[in-house]
Write a structure and sequence with these properties.
5-stranded mixed sheet, alpha/beta, ROK, ROK family protein, ATPase_NBD, Nucleotidyltransferase, domain 5, binds beta-D-glucopyranose, single chain, 252 residues, 2 domains, 8 helices
């Protein structure tokens, strides 16, 4: 099935049509800088631009960097607070399925990427403006886990170890990797995952930092789909909702 996937990020809003059975983009993706401030109306305008560019009228999936329950935004840690309470289908149209960005990326990685075929507990973490999390048990997503907000050394983990913090504080890859490692160890101790997948924008630079990270028996691997995971996962969620309209509204 061909579906439009849109990934709303802190710096860019990216969209492309996706072949959801193959997990691949069918047309070149379009990126629009995220409007400032990233309020719902301005973001909806950018989403409309993407819809128009692809001349799209079918189902579409849209990611959002916060908790999304039954299509309604519940938290907004890194975007304008006016998002809280916004319904995805009111804002983007009835054809839109909205879900958490890390959940979308995780679903794509579990189906077509680094987590493919992996059973047991798998944790996908995305490092970007914040830290996103997607938890899978035998391939089934536990949505909206929000593990980027656990406390480490008196601070939220994403305020110590997101990729944004690395850039803002100009941390060396090694220094930043030590912070990430401390965070991953905590997650391992809490969840005992059989695999941790590192996604988000930083995953394409895995060679620079993964060598500093050692979690003993727990493998830590980079995401395979990189920046396309959110777009592909969003499209997959919309395709799933189109197949089973009631049961899956708002969830992949
Ligand atoms: C948000 C999550 C989101 C993550 C990555 C966090 O601040 O609370 O919902 O998945 O950032 O964007």
């Amino acid at each position: 099935m061909e579906v439009l996937g849109i990934d709303i990020g802190g710096s860019g809003i990216k969209g492309a049509t996706v072949d959801t059975a193959a997990g691949a983009l069918t047309r070149e993706r379009l990126r629009i800088p995220t409007p400032r401030p990233a309020v719902p109306g301005a973001v909806a305008q950018a989403v409309r631009e993407i819809v128009t560019h692809f001349d799209w009228s079918g189902p579409m999936g849209v990611t959002f960097p916060g908790v999304v329950l039954d299509g309604v935004v519940r938290t907004a840690a890194n975007v304008d607070r006016s998002w809280i309470g916004v319904s995805g289908s009111d804002l983007f149209g009835k054809q839109a399925v909205v879900l958490n960005d890390a959940d979308a990326a995780g679903v794509a990685e579990m189906t077509f990427g680094a987590g493919r075929g992996r059973r047991g507990v798998v944790l996908v973490l995305t490092f970007g403006t914040g830290i996103g999390s997607a938890l899978f048990v035998d391939g089934v997503l536990v949505p909206n886990t929000e593990f980027g907000h656990i406390e480490i050394r008196g601070k939220e983990a994403e305020h110590r170890a997101s990729d944004r913090v690395r850039e803002e504080k100009d941390l060396s890859w090694e220094k930043w990797a030590r912070r990430v490692e401390e965070y991953l160890r905590r997650m391992r101790d809490l969840l005992s995952p059989t695999l941790i997948v590192i996604g988000g924008g930083v995953s394409k630079k895995a060679a620079k930092f993964l060598r500093y990270i050692d979690l003993g028996d727990t493998p830590v691997v980079p995401a395979v789909l990189r920046n396309e995971a959110g777009i592909i996962g969003a499209a997959m969620a919309a395709a799933e909702a189109a197949r089973t309209p009631v049961a899956s509204a708002g969830h992949p």
